[in-house]
Amino acid sequence: MKFFQQLLIFILTVVLSLCLVACSKEKKQGKVIITEQEFVLRQDRETNFTIDAKGKIKNIGEVDVKKVVVTGYCRSCNPQWIIGQWVITPEIEKMPNQKDIISYLAVGSEESFSFEEITDMRLRSDQKAPEMPEKLEIVIESFETVGK
Question: Which of 11, 21, 82, 132 has its CA 20 to 30 A from that of 64?
Fold first, then answer.
């Protein structure tokens, strides 16, 4: 009888150990990086200028990803509208033209992105074309991993 109790305890211990090992496997992660980026100064009206962006992203993670949201920020721009200064609207959700959504990106693949209006500037008619602002940044806002 004692032998069967010891055998039962041993078997339950082995089964419990196997369950813990199986459940503790680390989930594979997705990782997306920006491999190329370019900022473009565009004049959209006689006295209005805007900065657009384009480039490429690459999935260097262990799993495929989907719904990759890429957008841009000007960290040195003014949050208030002032003639002759680059301006941003920090507390407002990005409009569809201000971000790009890559629907699917397989492991190791690269995809192009582009979007408009990182920042805007309005000039008086006697002012010359502006310089690019400092601290422009393209960021990957979010993505979802594809379960396999």
Answer: 21
